[in-house]
Amino acid sequence: MPEFSDENIFNLFGTEAAEDETIGRFKEYFFYNNTYANLISSLPLRILVGQKGIGKSSLLKRAYLHDQEDGTLALWLKPGDVASVSTQTGNPDFVARVEHWKEALIKLIAQQILGDKAEELLQSSRLKTFASRISSFIPALTDVVSKNAESIGAVFDKAVISSFIAKENINIYIDDIDRGWSATSAAINNISALLSAMRDITGSEQKIRFRLGLRSDVYFLVRTADESTDKIEGNVIWLSWTNHDILCIMAKRIETFFDKNSPILSNMQQLNQADITKLVLSKVIDANFSGAGHWSNRPIHNVLLSLTRRRPRDLVKLMHGAAKNAASHRHELISSTDLKASFESYSNERLQDIINEYRSELPDIEKLLLEMKPTKKERTTAESYKFTTASLTEKLKNVMGHVSFRFVNGRPVTARSLLQFLYKIDFITARKDGAEGIDRRYFDRSRFLATECSDFGFDWEIHPAYRWALQPQDVNSIFDTIDGDVPRNE
Question: Which of the residues 224, 305, 398, 417 has an alpha carbon 20 to 30 A from that of 190?
């Protein structure tokens, strides 16, 4: 067993962001699923939607590498490339914004491929009105590339250039478009105009293909603000993971560290969670959790998955934190004590994450979340983090009594709109207790459960990931508030 040095921790569990990983290691442990298959299809417009930390960048990066391996001309537009265009789309007329985006996107494509020769192409007489004649762009671009294949080949692989001249396909990847996102009406309209522009371009010329990553909260605001977005709904790929998927993602990282040719890798998804723990996780962490409350002596995967918010990055962060604690005590395996010691820090960081992510939508989000901590009376019960719709509404009304909130996009603030907001950001999850166990729902799967108009009979609970941050004065009692049910594989 290797020691838990910083280098080995990164090699074992992977980096938190795909863009920070070496290409070789990234390819070794990448987890293929149906979402990836849909992303690399030949459809011209693919919009990958999911929460931050769920793996959008990883899938986009692997699809981009797939294009390179396949000889397809692929461009990766950086946030700065697109931001330089976005700042110029201040025209209040929506149609004008769409036209501006169309022109800007074509210009960016030309600049990425042709460099200094892009301006010559863009100024050519046949392309002076390319915003309304997208179909003329590809033939003109192909002509310039053919005449300058030698110089362009210094930037792109010559086989890629030859493939483009023959097939004329271009895949354009745009990630982190929502970096620095503000949930103002202008920002929402700007993203909506971008989506419409990409749809117009791909509708006129399907050899130009866009692959865009978008946070689910951004998409939700755009989708509910612009009725025309129903036209791009069929191009949206929702990225979500089951608990079993997330465990397999981590297990594949660990197993490839020890043995890149392990037979376990070929049938990992068919293994149950107990076998994954026994065969893989036990190489680096105690197989059972020694602790108090409902988690006492539970399989370690039960504990780990209960703290993740259906986001692979959460499990990466948990393993990194626990491994660092193990290193400080010179442990050869991550012990339950090492894992427990990481919970408070992990919880604080996850709370800070959503404050940073959603402050642009609700400026006083920090006050709202901290006000959700259990009262002294609530801390005496095991139900301190669980609510009926009525009790949660009442708690939010009490909070509104001494804190003034406002949504940046002008949405009215009510107890029910705050409840829906907490659900959307995964601070609370929906739950329904039944004979077969607890049915838990997240916003990206069941967005209408928190609607202001109807009650679907679900209760609510604050996700365990945040509880140590909300109750720092008595962290040990939190174990009694967490259910001991095994997270389902769905």
Answer: 417
Report the DSSP pairing between strands 437-441 and 428-434: antiparallel
Report residue 18 as tokens: 């795909």
Q: What residues form DSSP beta bridges with 172?
A: 75, 210
Cα within 13 Å of Cα(302), Cβ side:
17
Q: Which amino acid is at 413?
A: V
Q: Which residue has the tokens 């729902």?
A: 441
- What 126-132 contacts at long range (C-beta under 8 Å, 24+ apart), as own/partner pairs, is 130/103, 130/106, 131/99, 131/102, 131/103, 131/106, 132/99
Assign 30 to helix, strand or coil.
coil
Through-space distance between the first and last CA atoms of the chain, rounded to whole angstroms: 33
Residue 119 has pLDDT above 80, yes or no: no
For strands 236-238 and 45-50, give the pairing.
parallel
344 CB-near residues (< 8 Å, 6+ apart): 468, 469, 472, 475
| C-alpha span between 105 and 420 (Å, rounded) | 35
pTM score: 0.89
- Beta carbons of 233 and 44 less than 8 angstroms apart: no
What pLDDT shows up at residue 382? 57
